[in-house]
Automatic annotation (TrEMBL), chains A, B:
SUPFAM superfamilies: PLP-dependent transferases. Belongs to the group II decarboxylase family. Pfam families: Pyridoxal_deC (PF00282). One of its GO terms (molecular function) is pyridoxal phosphate binding. One of its GO terms (biological process) is carboxylic acid metabolic process. One of its GO terms (cellular component) is cytoplasm. Keywords: Decarboxylase, Lyase, Pyridoxal phosphate. Its cofactor is pyridoxal 5'-phosphate. The modification N6-(pyridoxal phosphate)lysine is found at residue 337. InterPro entries: Asp_decarboxylase_pyridox, PyrdxlP-dep_de-COase, PyrdxlP-dep_Trfase, PyrdxlP-dep_Trfase_major, PyrdxlP-dep_Trfase_small. PANTHER family: CYSTEINE SULFINIC ACID DECARBOXYLASE (PTHR45677:SF8), GLUTAMATE DECARBOXYLASE-RELATED (PTHR45677). The keyword tRNA processing does not apply. This is Glutamate decarboxylase.
Amino acid sequence: MTKKEMAQANLENLYRIFTVPEAPDSTLGQIDHAITDNVTGFLQEHVVALQREMEEIEKDFTNPCIPEEPTFVSEYTEFVKDKLVAQSVHTAAPSFVGHMTSALPYFMLPLSRIMIALNQNVVKVETSKAFTPMERQVLAMLHRLIYNFDDNFYPEWIHKSQYALGAFCSGGTIANITALWAARNRLLGPSGDFKGIAQEGLFRAMQHLQCNGLAVLVSRRGHYSLGKAIDVLGLGRENLIAVDTDENNRIDMKQLRYQYALLKEKGIRPIALVGIAGTTETGNVDPLNEMADFASEIGCHFHVDAAWGGPTLFSEKYRHLLSGIERADSVTIDAHKQLYVPMGAGMVLFKDPTALSAIEHHAAYILRHGSKDLGSHTLEGSRPGKSMLVHAGLSIIGRKGYELLIDMGIEKAKMFAEKVNQHPDFELISEPELNILTYRYNPSWLQLAMSQGSAEQVSKANQLLDQVTRLVQKHQREAGKSFVSRTSLRAKAYCDETLTVFRVVLANPLTTDEILSAVLEEQCAIVQGKEIQQLLQDVKNIFSDFEQRQAC
Amino acid sequence: MTKKEMAQANLENLYRIFTVPEAPDSTLGQIDHAITDNVTGFLQEHVVALQREMEEIEKDFTNPCIPEEPTFVSEYTEFVKDKLVAQSVHTAAPSFVGHMTSALPYFMLPLSRIMIALNQNVVKVETSKAFTPMERQVLAMLHRLIYNFDDNFYPEWIHKSQYALGAFCSGGTIANITALWAARNRLLGPSGDFKGIAQEGLFRAMQHLQCNGLAVLVSRRGHYSLGKAIDVLGLGRENLIAVDTDENNRIDMKQLRYQYALLKEKGIRPIALVGIAGTTETGNVDPLNEMADFASEIGCHFHVDAAWGGPTLFSEKYRHLLSGIERADSVTIDAHKQLYVPMGAGMVLFKDPTALSAIEHHAAYILRHGSKDLGSHTLEGSRPGKSMLVHAGLSIIGRKGYELLIDMGIEKAKMFAEKVNQHPDFELISEPELNILTYRYNPSWLQLAMSQGSAEQVSKANQLLDQVTRLVQKHQREAGKSFVSRTSLRAKAYCDETLTVFRVVLANPLTTDEILSAVLEEQCAIVQGKEIQQLLQDVKNIFSDFEQRQAC
């Protein structure tokens, strides 16, 4: 071929990439159809139980050079199948109960494809049209779920240009940042000759207010996104005040008042008080009504991080657990958690439909004043039409369907807690309030010994048990049959010592009683390994004097 | 049915939703296949040229109540087809040349489905496994494209836990915020008894530094995301210093020095100097080398916003236009723009692989110290495995394929500019440097009149022409056959007056010469409408004295 012919061939190939669909019998077509026809089957066959070290996997992803020449789609797809799909995590497996991922409803797959093919950009109406009112409707639906304003409210505000009932985000972190950003800017809005923090910045705002800093108050169970939020917003991580919790991982109101008094003494103003409706690690809910009372007493923005627990509002039986959420100024809910939408969808709702004006912005080529462009009230710019999948979930599953999912999750957690309690060799660390619980392996003989041992002995035993928990979790993860996560928590039952524990999240409707029993059995089997037995022997030695006493 | 039977039926239905695939002959299956087999055909049939007012469309999205009962997927899909797909914007149409959207390569659709079905969460290895090293590889590939470090560099850093060569984000806005956040935190890191801005906040940092504020310097063509960034970071929008540009929409270095001197006088420190590699509105590139010189002279972080223009680096012919980008401390590139990945994928790369440590964060249950979890260096938390689509694009299209796309876009823009220049009734406002240009309708008689008119006459004429541009753009958009966007720009040729102009972005490889000619023809036809003719008559009257003189 001459150079000119080659260039022509390249060009034709390029057009083909953009215009010719994948043949159904191509490798990509086959994987695609296998996934369409049977996600669970396909994933189980290709994903579960592949034991491979990360360092091994990394070898397939080490070349930093962008390939010069094009690759055939079929060839690339073989790579995807063997090196990516087969080496990914089967997050939808019913035995994957360690993180906040779950099986997806099937209809999410074809609908996602439509969303991706349409490639709308909801930052502006010009590139999204119907997706803009749809997103506004989704925000109104969630707003109503939380705040339940009367029938005159929604027709007035839902499609009102220049306003938004909330912001659709890539996830709960951006939602929390958006809430605190709006709270900060509202507290430090224009007054007198001060043009507001949005215009003049935090330093001038402090000078204007004559105060020494800004803070956010939240329990020590607050999500780590709040740490990022307070850093990025310029408040400083020291000013994220981690208030102590009670024995149920809920904020201690006395401690909250005390911490507030300390701030006041130092001349530091809270921009927000954050309540948690479903802590990430234990699934507990803060006393939202008491917090709302206190927030109104001190005149502070009240934000509720319900990224996980928000959809509990669907349940007639359990929605009372979130009582007081309707008094929050803003609420975060993640759609990719308990709304069962694919990864990358969060929301923040604001009680006051004008609240987001505190972060409003415009540009000459889009987001012009008076437009209905959603982008004028979001931290993010270009965004996909993911709210379509929330709309689909709410429509197809319905309130009652979600209620069933929520109720099942909570009841399954209670049942699993019961299992842990009844098993002689496990110890429940946090009782489930929603559908999350924590526990650890702690053999009955050791539980007895610890209950009678000295503080020093107990503390030493806990350190060794922490190692046991870490090892069991690691082995179980690596075996790939089931998965629980681990975290560390201060436990009131152990004088506030920090314990490493297993964490279980029960949101997959396909997780059965038998699967949960198998998770515990597998852990008991792992414990029989040499390394862990040695650790348990070390624990035994700590209490040997006690055993000797027993023997007498 | 008894209540119990109903509950059982509901439960079974729910399991079905999570486990039974959509039948190929269901409505959803049909749409899905239609899209699989022929995206362009399907979209053209269903989307283009549907004229419907927003207020009409909104009527289908006004109910704020979440449906109580489940809906059949088939029923819901009819709704999606008629009310959403048919009322969306055909962003992939070859005649849609107004925004930064384009046709997607076909293989992105089945691969996206796989990504969605796997539902990985790349915040942590435990829920993403191979997706973590893959994302790290993608970041390394882009890092190398920009910085081209030697062969020892990448093996050392690519998979090094605790570090990251960049951050994968939902888009360019989060990428820009991440860059400026890291820059701010590095400038104000721990020193002496000051624990750093991340810990103590901006107010204490100013007291420690004894300075009066922080700023970001960028040309007035900077993207609106920088305004959000500076607001959220606590610097205040006043401190986003919009430096004047030269006649080619590039930052004026003299003005930059002048603005910096003003800041210095006021005791305000710049946290970053931002260069633009492809301004959103005109596609121009700042003098990056000169800016890098200046940044190093004043000891300031140099960030380049190459969200749009970054992939120009693929082109051997045009990469010189971005010369100096390799001297930037950080660079933003959007994958959903000229890497042709579906909406929702941006990146920021850092020259120094330790730079992101300035925003590092941890949590007990994930992102533990020493882990390779990507989430410890991103602003966002839970994120989908979108980097897979970038990996696919780079592999399948290859460097040479992207080069072809870039070259075609730039050459098409030159050709279109030529068309505008040759047409007597259009006026080119900004010459294309990359693949973006602006122009307006300005009939030849008026161009002549304006060239000889008084300043006052010209200014009045411009105001009326602005209205013409707005109307033409609106009518063309509403007709739905083709789309150009509009913006307003200060034009040096008109003594820095702000003009409303058409903006054209040429990145869709399917856009042909004929389509572009048709865009201009359609605009000429729209101008013939009564309302616009009346406006043009008004302009004529402004110059009537001139015409009378001509007649003499």
